[in-house]
Amino acid sequence: MIVSVEVDGIIYDAQSLKNKRAVLKRIMTRLRNEFNIAVSELEYQDLWQRTRIGLVTIASDKVIAEQTMQQALAFIDSFPEFERTETHQEWL
Fold this sequence. Notes:
- By secondary structure, the protein is an alpha+beta fold.
- It has helices spanning 17-35, 62-77, and strands at residues 2-10, 38-43, 50-58, 83-91.
- The protein starts with a strand and ends with a strand.
């Protein structure tokens, strides 16, 4: 089972692309290390405060894949500098 999620978010404190990328790098690196999932910024690379990141996981069981993704989303929500605005989930 493959689960992919696209997360739109806002980083209100980012005053430059450098600030934004520092926050995203920290979040994405920790997601990779904690949950062993693929993570990438998909859109809005040139906007200071807006972003869309993609997360993908593969598991032999749908329940395990979905649990991993829900834990990853909760982890993203734990960062006070990142506000998740929209989330789109897809199962393949």
